[in-house]
Amino acid sequence: MRKQFHVMGMPLVLAILAGMMMAGCSATTRDFDPTDTIHYDASYDFSDKNKIVDALVESLSHRSPLAARNDRPVVIVYDVANRTSEHISTDLITDDIRQRILETGKARFVNKVQRDNIQKELSYQYGGDVTADTRAQRARQVGAEYMISGTLRSITKKEPDQVRLKKRKLQYYSLTLELTDLESGLIEWADSVEIVREEAKPIIGW
Q1: I want to staple 7 with a disulfide (CB 3.0 to 4.6 A). Which of 15, 92, 140, 163 is the partner?
Q2: Residues 44-59: tens digit of each pLDDT
Q3: Any bridge partners for residue 148, and if so which?
Q4: 200 phi and psi, to 5 degrees?
């Protein structure tokens, strides 16, 4: 007669499977260097952000007009329009570009995000509670000479349906950035970064 082994009233095979499932459901974490290139799929990720920022900062800081200026012109950053179907925070791109350009000493930036708070603080200082010799002077803010703006676009191309072991798709991203002279309205600098990535997933898998 075939013997059946039990663990606390449960067949041994079921006990092993239950243990494997419990182990598979436990969370694990590990740290990465933010500069490492890591992709889990074809979608946009932080590695793409780093590549875009590196390329555009290099171009913007080493080409005219910023490269030809020694007086640190004032720049204002406007939104990069997201024309993709994904929820991508383009603020991460422009924030990093602004920080990196500041570090080069090539330009200064208007703090557009904090304009409302600046006005609130000025209103407080002129409300009677701050001494006249320490409050900030009104109408002394510096106007921007240039404006940074841009557009992020994407294209997804999938293989046609047919019998295969893996499903493949190509993911394309393009970010174009522009530097516009606010007085003349002329685009003084423009550049773009393109990313193309293939993703292959097995038809059957977890």
Answers
A1: 15
A2: 887 899 999 999 999 9
A3: 77, 179
A4: -125, 120
